[in-house]
Write a structure and sequence with these properties.
Blueprint: E1 2-7, H1 29-48, E2 53-57, H2 67-78, E3 82-89, E4 105-110, H3 118-126, E5 131-137, H4 143-152, E6 159-162, H5 171-180, H6 184-188, E7 191-192, E8 204-208, E9 212-214, E10 222-225, E11 245-246, H7 249-252, H8 260-263, H9 282-291
Parallel strand pairs: 1-2, 1-8, 2-3, 3-4, 4-5, 5-6
Antiparallel strand pairs: 7-11, 8-9, 9-10
The structure holds iron/sulfur cluster (SF4) (2 copies).
């Protein structure tokens, strides 16, 4: 099976997060047409492959406000050789269309507290008809929002926390975020990766809009092109990472020594742990009590 992280030219977003270079950025009509053509070409390629493919769309901006991403998610989810098709999204789009997708479609949703009313976001999450994880950036200003979300989300919805870029957390701060996401320790520090075996470049690749294949989004070396098949000769088992460190989940989840394929077994693209929901931690129970949470079951 080949896992593909696809990122086309789309670089616009309807949100305005202070920490993001794509905030309120607009693509020109030509750029949108190019993005659509590239995505449709990619989806056509996936449909023609004789082997199993798992896809995670990782657009720079927001994809699901564009019809071609919604259509690709639905159509790919029904292909017999597609084991999973997931997309990173802010979930600003309408969600009814997701009921047309098969159970192989999934969402990696990020909650941006400054951009969407809490109740609207929570309502959308609760009615999602496909597998999904929900996450938040570990900005101290988000801590109250994250606690509230953990309390209100269904117990079987995993809420991940990404360490904020450039932020060093004290042990006390890390413990607070770990009450919300017991796997926060994986995100807290960048992972030294030089010379370590990583699945990328073997059964995981990164593909951009023109079909250029790299092992991952973070290593610039080109392995070939998807559409002329030249990438295949470059794939080899577990090539070591040439970078000093890997600090993004979509990268280090493939770093073998971390063992995250076991942690996220069955849910690597959409970031859902195999053992979820978990037993409640005392800290989380205390928070729910303090927040006056209802009687819903605990993760
Ligand atoms: S929703 Fe994501 S892509 Fe859009 S501005 Fe916020 S962080 Fe950037
Ligand atoms: S460890 Fe990260 S940076 Fe290194 S090859 Fe793997 S995904 Fe790429």
């Amino acid at each position: 099976m080949l896992t593909i992280l696809y990122r086309g030219p789309l670089a616009s977003c309807d949100y305005d997060c202070a920490y993001c270079p794509f905030a309120k950025r607009r693509d020109t009509p030509e750029q949108l047409r190019a993005d659509r053509a590239a995505l449709e070409r990619f989806a056509g390629w996936v449909a023609e492959q004789p082997f199993e493919v798992s896809v995670l769309f990782t657009p720079w901006g927001e994809g699901l406000v564009r019809s071609w991403y919604r259509r690709a998610l639905v159509e790919l989810s029904w292909l017999p050789n597609v084991t999973k098709v997931a997309i990173q999204t802010n979930l600003s789009c309408r969600t009814e269309w997701l009921s047309e997708a098969s159970d192989r479609a999934a969402l990696w949703v990020t909650y941006h507290p400054t951009q969407v009313p809490y109740d609207r976001f929570l309502g959308k999450i609760r009615s999602l008809p496909v597998r999904h994880s929900v996450g938040i950036v570990g900005d101290p200003a988000h801590l109250t929002h994250a606690r509230r979300l953990r309390t209100d989300l269904p117990a079987d919805t995993y809420l991940w926390v990404n360490a904020e870029e450039g932020r060093l957390y004290t042990d006390g701060e890390a413990a607070e975020w770990s009450e919300i996401d017991p796997l926060f320790h994986y995100s807290r520090f960048a992972h030294p990766s030089a010379g370590l075996p990583c699945r990328t470049g073997d059964d995981v690749i990164s593909v951009n809009g023109d079909g250029t294949v790299r092992r991952c989004h973070f290593i610039p070396e080109v392995l070939g092109n998807l559409y002329d098949g030249s990438y295949r000769a470059a794939l080899r088992p577990r090539p070591p990472c040439p970078a000093a460190a890997c600090d993004c989940h979509i990268g280090y989840v493939h770093l073998e020594p971390l063992g995250l394929y076991d942690v996220f077994a069955g849910g690597v693209p959409e970031r859902i742990p195999a053992a979820w929901p978990r037993e409640p931690s005392p800290g989380l129970l205390g928070h729910r009590g303090a927040a006056g949470a209802g009687p819903s079951p605990m993760p």
